[in-house]
Amino acid sequence: MQTRKTLPFFGxxxxxxxxxxxxxxxxxxxxxxxxxxSGARKEARASWWGYDAKDxxxxxxxAINSEVxxxxxxxxSAGPWITQPLTLVSNQEIVFEEGVELQALRGxxxxxxxxxxxxxxxxxxxxxxxxxxxxxxxxxxxxHTDAYVKAEWRHGIxxxxxxxxxxxxxxxxxxxxxxxxxxAGAGRYCTDTVIRKVICDGNNRQGISVIxxxxxxxxxxxxxxxxxxxxxxxxxxxxNHAHEPLINCVMRNCITENNAGxxxxxxxxxxxxxxxxxxxxxxxxxVSRGDKRSAFxxxxxxxxxxxxxxxxxxxxxxxxxxxxxxxxxxISTKANDDLDFEFTNLKIRDCGGSFAPITISTHNYTxxxxxxxxxxxxxxxxxxxxxxxxxxxxxxxxxGYYPSHVSGAITVVCDGKTTTQALTQEWLKTTFPSRxxxxxxxxxxxxxxxxxxxxxxxxxxxxxxxxxRGGDFLVYxxxxxxxxxxxxxxxxxxxxxxxxxxxxxxxxxxxxELGKIKFQEEATFTLASAPMTGLYRLNIPGGSCWIELxxxxxxxxxxxxxxxxxxxxxxxxxxxxxxxxxxxxxxGEGEEGAKVTLFDPVGNNVxxxxxxxxxxxxxxxxxxxxQAGVWKLRFDRASKAxxxxxxxxxxxxxxxxxPAPGLTLTEKK
Length: 669
Description:
Blueprint: H1 9-20, E1 25-26, H2 30-37, E2 43-45, E3 51-52, H3 57-65, E4 70-73, E5 81-83, E6 86-87, E7 92-96, E8 101-104, E9 117-120, E10 123-129, E11 134-137, H4 140-143, E12 157-160, E13 163-168, E14 170-173, E15 178-183, E16 190-196, E17 199-201, E18 206-210, E19 213-219, E20 222-224, E21 233-237, E22 246-252, E23 255-257, E24 264-267, E25 279-284, E26 287-289, E27 296-299, E28 311-317, E29 320-322, E30 329-334, E31 338-349, E32 358-363, E33 374-383, E34 391-395, E35 406-414, E36 417-422, H5 425-431, E37 450-452, E38 460-461, E39 466-477, E40 483-490, E41 500-505, E42 511-517, E43 522-527, E44 534-552, E45 556-559, E46 562-565, E47 569-575, E48 583-588, E49 594-599, E50 605-612, E51 616-619, H6 622-625, E52 629-636, E53 645-651, E54 656-657, E55 665-667
Parallel strand pairs: 2-4, 4-7, 5-8, 6-9, 7-10, 8-11, 9-12, 10-13, 11-14, 12-15, 13-16, 14-17, 15-18, 16-19, 17-20, 18-21, 19-22, 20-23, 21-24, 22-25, 23-26, 24-27, 25-28, 26-29, 27-30, 28-31, 29-31, 30-32, 31-33, 32-34, 33-35
Antiparallel strand pairs: 1-3, 35-36, 37-55, 38-44, 39-44, 39-45, 40-43, 40-44, 41-42, 41-44, 45-54, 46-53, 47-52, 48-51, 48-53, 49-50, 49-52
């Protein structure tokens, strides 16, 4: 019979305690640190600087600041490395052992630009996960609460003006901004950057944002489940300034899926390739699967003002776009862009929602501008469960264009039938005939004096007219009169808003803060006594969402090109006596649209258009223009188009829309 030793009761209890309670801290190893700092060791382990299960920021930053050439973030038994933002240094390889998790400290990251890892003007840096990889985890849901100032820049990894950086085999989860941000600063751009085998999952704004890059390779990378703050794309290439380049940017074997925005988005109205050279972008063997908007969206046209021509080459090769809510391919460019697109060996399946799976639009700001670029489709197949046109073209400014820059052929598979359409000039002219408008001059609001239509208007309440992003509302008041405006800050889809100041600017430029407007709340803004007679500007910001005016005691209007969103309601404008003619332009954003109906001053329906996506124009006849008074423009949900962003501009009369007929403004004659 074998004899067993028996521990005393207190000894047994102590042994059990040791097995169930983890080490919540780990002491530093000064001897090892000294050898690193002396240069004797070229490789170090982060745990040599100690470990604190509650907050290891100081330990990790000290290890990084040692400038050891190879720093291993080792897997400790107590759990994740919890940290506040860390700043990296040049000439260092940081290796994460398999299964390591770098976790954001809960309650930290209060700064609107607090990123977990910051690489600013550094070079020769590698971030490498071993084995099955490592994780950088933040807590997006926390940053959406009132405990935080709303922001879209709490990134997982921020690169600014870096050189020779490699990020590999990491998962970046639930950041408050982008998984990875590739940006610029002080005229320096990120060059020679490699992102490989990275998973960006559930981030707030983008999986990856690229602001400026030269020689960028993104390979074997997944960008999925982005939602929170627009654009909510898998990846977004979007220069902030004209001088920021996108040269030799390659994506290979990448996947975007289930993002609330586009899969692969290129938003380039700010770019001026004359300042830095033509852009060059290539997608090879890439997939978009189930993205809520377009799989591939490429935009150079500006929302309101002309921008320089963009030149370059975009190649999409051996890619697959599946089940996107918007178009598989959406291209919206300026008519003078010298851009070449080559789509080769591309498969498109069940994309486009209610519209065509491929959409192309051109926008011109100068009559007669050419279409110098080209869009070529080679071995492109569209598999569609809906029998509909595979291509939609819009001459968004009605400048008389047809898609003469398009060529190649597209094969369509639908209901068991396969057909191939050659994109010949004859077919393009016949399918997309030119639409030309007679252009009317716009009224320069800076050169005219505006006055109320009614001298003593009654206060009014209203709902339904939602202005995208809010902005400057024009308010007229006489000296001594009170100004009182009520507004609501609404949510758009899953986008978040912030608490913002509301500022009133008087006719001489003096500013008065009237209070704050909170996201998803109604507020009233009051000035007890107007200091002078004239036109005031009331700035009510709406972030990426919308502002709905609900009441006003003074004449009020939005001016210029007016952006509304998800609007069902009436807007009003005034046609002065003696107006020879006027026009209204209406159009949607991308594949979004609305139904519009126009009523003259006596209530007659004079114009009605449903599913306005491409630009539509109403030109008043001389008899109609002679009907001076307040006209009404009604916005309704479109029958087919997605009901979201919509734009209106008036010509021949001041481009002003008011929420009530008695609160309209007009040109003083």
